[in-house]
Amino acid sequence: MIGLDIADAQSVLSDLETMSTTSTFGPEVEDVCRQLRTTVVDPAFPGALIPTASAAGRLQILVATPTMMAWRRLSPVLKAFAGPTMTSFNGITAPLPPGELATQRLAQTLPAATCVIQIPQDRKSVLSALRALMRVRETIARAPDLQAAVPEPTSWLLARFQDNLNVGRRDAATVILERLKDELRLDALNTKFLEVQLLAAFGDWAAIVSLAGFGSLRLARRPPAITALLLEALYRTHLSDLFDAGDRGRVHDTYRTTVRDLAQPMLSVPLPSTLTPGGLKLYALETLVSASRSDIQEALAGENSSLGWLADELGTRPGAIAPHPTLTPASSPIDDARAALVQVDAVEAVDNVAAALAALAKLAPAELALLRDAEPFSTAFRLIEVNAPGGVPSSWIEWLEKTADPTFTNALEIARHGKDEWSVGSSTSDPVQVAALVAALNHAQADQLASERTAQALPFLVAWLQQDPAFPGPTMAPVYSSLLTLFALNSTRGGSVYESSQVLVEALLTVGIDGADYSSLIADIDELAGQAFGVDMIYWVLDTIENFMRASAPDAKIREGFLHSILARTAPLYGRLSTLQRTAVRRLAGELGWSLEAFGVNVDSEPNDGVSYKLDGLRIAIYSLTETSSRQAKNAIEEMSPNVVVDCAADHGGSARLKAMAENADIFVVTWLSAKHAATEFIREHRGDRTLLYAQGRGFSSILRALEEHLK
Q1: Are strands 48-53 and 619-623 parallel, antiparallel or unpaired?
Q2: Is residue 568 a contact partner of residue 611, using CB atoms and an 8 Å limit?
Q3: Which residue in 16, 24, 80 sits closest to 50, CA to CA?
Q4: Which of 55, 89, 140, 533 has its CA 20 to 30 A from that of 459?
Q5: How many separate helices (H) and strands (E) can be counted in the chain?
Q6: Distance in angstroms (rounded) separating the CA atoms of residues 138 and 245
Q7: Which of 456, 368, 497 shows the shortest CA–CA distance to 158?
Q8: Where are the alpha helices (DSSP H) in 602-696?
Q9: Which regions of the chain are under pLDDT 70?
Q10: Which residues, 6+ apart, have CB-to-CB distance to 101 below 8 Å?
Q11: Which residues are bridge partners to 671 per DSSP?
Q12: What is the Cα–Cα distance from 558 to 560, expressed in whole angstroms?
């Protein structure tokens, strides 16, 4: 295939079909020529074979490949099937003949390599050569894909999905989600749960409510975290604007007529641990509508600060009674076990399984046998026996202690749920708990199995830390540091360099660390990057450099030496970098007063990735509260293509200018970590279905990265 993408390739093929004059060689020849021209839109073919009639009326084949790697793949096969014994092809590139319409259209695709194959003109030789070229296509189609990804366990894909959510890489997370769907890795319900998490991470609440099957989700057995997100989506979509405006009457009317039927099946007690203020307000509204839900009013005790004016209405409603302790009859162990099993069957929660296991442990063998065979408890009982044979941890410390156990086969699944269910507040406010967590992390590294499981669960640990309202907090710096060291050890063992490591780097730089810890941080980053990192690590390195440049340093000389050292390692890769990557490297080098030319880098060479062509004539909008970064990105983009228009905004809420940018830009890039909710919601509302990209960091290189990944 040639062209920027499949749509561009189809446009090229359509134009070439219009220009073609090969029909003059007869229907049999024209039929083969038409099949060869479709290589233009064949993603499996490394280029295109385009039969045309020359100015002299002779049949010739124009050959073009989008990259030199594609040429090196295509050339030997062409030479083997249609070499000098049949055609003029000798394996050497040559320019396309000037002046012909087909060659002019082909040149617009910016091919990396071209040549022209001349064919003997007697009819028998023409057909033989064309059929040989068809065998070239068939042979390449049958060849194994040496670039195919090695099959990955589903648990690894889920960890990478969370990793991308942690840093706001929506497109990358979406690709993994689509792969999980296409390969049928998960059932339809769990796939929907991931889709809800993805949309919620970017505040796309209306899209959650509009999901096909939303009505079924509210009735299904689901994790508490998903319940919290579904309730928040209902509140944000239907009630938040009315509530903020203080329109009490319309809030109550809208809840009764539109929201209640959807929310009611999810308004159970106990409240989900991750319940947000929007969800709490739905619970409060249900209490005001239904006098029988005194259980909710008791559960809401202490949540007045999140309820706004609804707290006043709850306190003054007719018949409202302040929560007070009531005497409940003592229950037997088997009754407790039954209640626990009912909760397991109703809510997919790790803590519910742990509670049920504790209750079952108190029963006699005869009572266990009774529950195992009795409905409706037998289903939940079997579920526990299959998924929790060795017990279920109730905290990260317990999880880390169990990772060395070979029978703990569902460790990553537990970690995925635990990140939402295990309280982060108690762990971050207690120095003893912080020290215990650090000790557990360090102890896990002494065992190979525990170390591997911990490394794979790192994105879930980071997601858990980010739920802390005080994140990043100074008291948690030892945890951030220990986790970053684990990221570094994972990379040296050949594991993934997770994007979430950037979250920890920025957290440590934000809370402030002393000279010794600063040196340890640099050592971990050196380990993560490696002494010879590849092109795939360039943006990770550039984001790290920008983080260090933004933050204060306990020792300026150490920082300067580190930045020069890590940036110098990009020099050998410069010739393989894309246009946007080169621009970012040059600008950061300039800020550090560092010369690429000193390392023998030819900064005037230009990669043949067609970025300038792709940007030509576009209008790009950038939203970031870090205005220096958006200005740097604007200058870099406009430097690459003089005909591109870039607008920047840093409004804290909606405005006429921001609305115009959202409605008129071809591409809108939002810096995810520095964006205010009100502004991003406003932008999304006015973008509709048009392209909206999320840059994962605060620096200008992350803006360029988001743009590059989209243009690819």
Answers
A1: unpaired
A2: no
A3: 16
A4: 533
A5: 39, 7
A6: 66
A7: 456
A8: 611-615, 627-640, 656-664, 677-687
A9: 144-151, 316-330, 344-349, 351, 376, 380-390, 426-428, 491-497, 531-533, 599, 603, 605, 607-609, 673-677
A10: 19
A11: 695
A12: 6
Helices 677-687/656-664 angle, 10° precision: 40
Whole-number pLDDT of residue 146 = 53
Which of the 8 DSSP states describes residue 149? P
Residues shown for the chain: 712
Q: Are strands 619-623 and 667-671 parallel, antiparallel or unpaired?
A: parallel
Q: Which residues of 244-272 are buried (b: 16+ CB within 10 A; e: fewer)?
A: eeeeeeebbebbeeebbebbeebbbeebb
What are the tokens at 30? 């024209």
pLDDT in tens, 133-184: 999 888 888 876 555 555 678 888 999 999 999 988 888 899 999 999 988 8
**Exposure string for 672-692, b = 16+ CB within 10 A, e = fewer:** bbbbeeebbbbbbebbeeeeb
Which amino acid would we find at residue 294? S
Burial class (CB in 10 A: 0-12, 13-18, 19+), 373: exposed
> 90: how many CB neighbours lie within 10 A of its CB?
13
| Model pLDDT for residues 240-273, shown as the tens digit of each residue | 999 999 999 999 999 999 999 999 999 988 888 8
Closest CA to 104 of 59, 25, 45, 50: 50
Burial class (CB in 10 A: 0-12, 13-18, 19+), 205: buried
Neighbours of 527 (CB within 10 A): 17
Bridge partners (DSSP) listed for residue 117: 61
Q: What is the pTM of this model?
A: 0.72
Q: Alpha carbon 515 to chain centroid distance? A: 34
DSSP label of 299: H
| Nearest C-alpha neighbor of 161 from the set 460, 482, 382 | 460
Which amino acid, 53?
A
The radius of gyration computed from the CA coordinates of the chain, to the nearest angstrom, equals: 31
